Amino acid sequence: MERARLPRLARPAGPDRAYLVTVVDDRARAVVLRSSSGAGRPPRRSICSLCVTTHTGGVALLVAPLAGPAGRQGNSVGAYVCSDLACSLYVRGLRETGTRIHESLTQEQRIDRLRDNLTGFLAKVAVGEAK
Ligand SMILES: [Zn+2]
Fold first, then answer.
1. How far apart are CA 88 and CA 50, in angstroms?
2. How far is the CA of 51 from the centre of ligand 1 (A)?
3. CA–CA gap between residue 29 and residue 22 (Å, rounded)
4. What's 74-108 look like in SS3?
5. How far is the CA of 59 from the centre of ligand 1 (A)?
6. Residue 22, pLDDT score
7. How confident is the model at residue 130 (pLDDT cuts 50, 70, 90)?
8. Which of 44, 81, 90, 125 fits a 20 to 30 Å CA distance from 117?
9. Which residues contact 102 (CB under 8 A, 6 or more apart)?
């Protein structure tokens, strides 16, 4: 799978839903995410699984249904993600959390890591297509 382009994340009016739209292998991919409350709450200081930004209380568990029949049966996959969905800004230093861990990676390497992590998340969602 070709690496995903950087995601376009948006939060619509509903506070518990978000949409992730990106391009993989020259195909647009869109995933509907919803906030998951209840079990699995992250600790107070958390790290976004996509952009690896450290937050204090600023990471949410977002859940996407698996593609295909598995998703229609209610199976889903989740990821802890920046609750403001600003991963693209964090990796570019355009938004700060105040709790940033020093990394030796360059900005370009952080952007590449975000793309790789996004590709991995979308691959987990796509697992349902094969079933
Ligand atoms: Zn993030």
1. 10
2. 4
3. 5
4. CCEEEEEEECCCCHHHHHCCCCCCCCCCCCCCCHH
5. 8
6. 83
7. low
8. 44
9. none
